[in-house]
């Protein structure tokens, strides 16, 4: 049994965090781009968002939306690091599935990792630095990535 399945608040926190991540992936460019992001994100124990949830809960704010976005940022940072790390290490399999570089090549995998970094900085800026002023329009950002990477 996965640890977050034992506590309802953990289960709800992970579900909410995964929903935000799924929405981010759905709002990216091409189907190929979405599929790569989804295929590389599935699985795992979700320890990073659970640490964010537990820390937030200590502060009595575990259901506070910023806590969910903090967990999303941590997950996207981890995923971006996996895209880059797999290239540096020459890894071809992760969690019994082909790595992004195996599926789309190293150059595209680096750019997808870079996109995730840009996305997490955008979320951090919007949710924590200045929620009323958007730094990037997501539509344009993902379209630019789509044009240069997948077409």
Structural description of this entry:
It is a single chain. The protein is mainly alpha-helical and about 150 residues long. It has a single domain (about 5-150), classed as Orthogonal Bundle (Farnesyl Diphosphate Synthase). The protein is about 70% helix and about 5% strand. It has seven helices and two strands. It has helices at about 10-25, 30-40, 45-60, 65-90, 100-105, 105-130, 140-150; strands spanning about 95, 95-100. It has a two-stranded antiparallel ribbon. Strand 1 and strand 2 (about 95-100) form a beta hairpin. Helix 1 (about 10-25) crosses helix 3, helix 1 (about 10-25) crosses helix 4 and helix 6 runs antiparallel to helix 7 (about 140-150). The protein is globular. It starts with 7 loop residues before the first helix and ends with a helix. The mean pLDDT is about 85.
Summarize the structure.
With 151 residues, the protein is mainly alpha-helical.
Shape: globular
Calculate the mean pLDDT score and round it: 83
What fraction strand?
under 5%
CATH classification, class level: Mainly Alpha
- Rg estimate, integer Å: 16 Å
CATH architecture: Orthogonal Bundle
**CATH-assigned homologous superfamily:** Farnesyl Diphosphate Synthase
Query: What is the number of strand segments?
Result: 2
Poorly predicted parts: none
Structurally, how many domains make up the residues? Answer: 1
N-to-C CA distance: 42 Å
Q: Assign a percent range to the helix content.
A: over 70%
Q: Tell me the series of helices and strands, N- to C-terminal.
A: HHHHEEHHH
Largest sheet composition: 2 strands, antiparallel
What class would the helix/strand composition place it in? mainly alpha
As for the CATH topology, it is Farnesyl Diphosphate Synthase
Strand order of the largest sheet: 1-2
Number of helices: 7
